[in-house]
Amino acid sequence: GDVHANGIATIVGAGKRTAPDRAAFVNGVAANALDYDGGVVLQGHYGGTVIFATLAMAELTKCSGREFVEAVIAAYEVTTRIGEATRPTPEYRRQVSGYGPHQGFAAAVAAGRLLKLDVDRMVHAFGIYGTFAPLPSSAQWNWRNRPLTWTKDMVAWPSVSGINAALLAESGFLGPRTILEGDRGFWRMQASDRFDPAMLLEGLGTKFNMLRLYFKAYPTCRWNQAALDAVLQIMTRRGWRERDVAAVQVGVARALVDQQFEDYAPHNLVDAQFSLPYAISVVMHGAKAGPHWYEPALFDSPKIHATMKKVTVVLDPEIERLFVERRMAGANVRVTGADGSVEIARVDHAHGDAENPLTDDELNAKYRAATKVALDDDACEKLLANTVIENYAYELTT
């Protein structure tokens, strides 16, 4: 039908339109491509699913700006709560895991809300999505098999399943009504060993999880961010440049060691996003954060690769404890100078975490760095100004 005709939903930056589920897929892949997006530690990168599933369905339904924002909020709240309620124990997660499965409920919620599904049909949309959900495969088949691929966090395919689940529910298709509950609920299907249904409703309507999202200061895995902060703290403290550093030892959680974050020979940009030596080398050479981190000038630079050899990655018991107990992806860094002196810095909350947030100016600078590769300065500033005005207008009406 009309839903699968060309020309409904925008492929951002390409000047093309396609069906909503396809647009959400392409845009979601692009959003996660540089690993510069936000999220929740040990839960997933939600923006690529939430924003682009909502945008695609907003174009289909021709909703208002307010309805768009409300759908985004609802999608974030539902999917983060399902993520909290179904998070596996660390022991089970080491066997098999993936962020994608529960993330698609965000797309189902956004699509269902914009389609104005009633409660009964929304329940069916949940059930249909639960049966459509992708396998929790990213950790099982990807992390330990380099080179890595775009499937690393599976933010895009759940949008396809979630959007189509809502559209099918709107058309009268039925889904299982107890997709989340019971001993055979969705939590088992997404490779978890526990389910805490109380987490689904805790503070609902008053406690907003989306306010706890992190924003990345650097285009690399969130688990790398604290180490970069610590290295820069030390180099700034001492006034050091790359040539003044003899060795960098990074103490991290077990997950980084198990998943090969000590990659010294990344094959492609995705590998590089999960290579601590690569990220540390880039910042030690003074490169500002931005999409250029993965362009040939840095990626193929002999200087960058030589500096990577100065970095070692080790397990730090205290960082591991905080990672497991409090989901804090921190780092304990020891830098040895060329003069033989030693400097230490520990960062528990990377710059960009809710506990250590980026300022508005820093977020705007990140926006400019990311958009200037596609927009000229005038268009970039006009879009930023319009976004600020629209957000302010929305706040005034709520």
Structure in words:
There is one protein chain. With 398 residues, the chain is of the alpha+beta class. Helix content is 49%, strand content 8%. The chain has 19 helices and 6 strands. It has helices at residues 20-32, 47-61, 65-85, 90-93, 100-114, 119-132, 138-141, 157-170, 186-189, 198-201, 222-238, 254-258, 269-273, 276-284, 296-299, 302-308, 317-326, 360-371, 377-396, and strands spanning 9-11, 16-18, 245-252, 311-315, 331-337, 342-347. The strands form 2 sheets. The protein has a 4-stranded mixed sheet. It has a two-stranded antiparallel ribbon with strand order 1-2. The radius of gyration is 22 Å and the shape is globular. It starts with 8 loop residues before the first strand and ends with a helix.
Termini separation comes to: 37 Å
Spatial arrangement of strands, main beta sheet? 4-3-5-6
Outline = globular
Give a count of the beta strands, DSSP E runs of length 2 or more.
6
The number of helices is 19
Radius of gyration: 22 Å
Write the layout of secondary structure elements.
Layout: E1 9-11, E2 16-18, H1 20-32, H2 47-61, H3 65-85, H4 90-93, H5 100-114, H6 119-132, H7 138-141, H8 157-170, H9 186-189, H10 198-201, H11 222-238, E3 245-252, H12 254-258, H13 269-273, H14 276-284, H15 296-299, H16 302-308, E4 311-315, H17 317-326, E5 331-337, E6 342-347, H18 360-371, H19 377-396
Parallel strand pairs: 3-4
Antiparallel strand pairs: 1-2, 3-5, 5-6
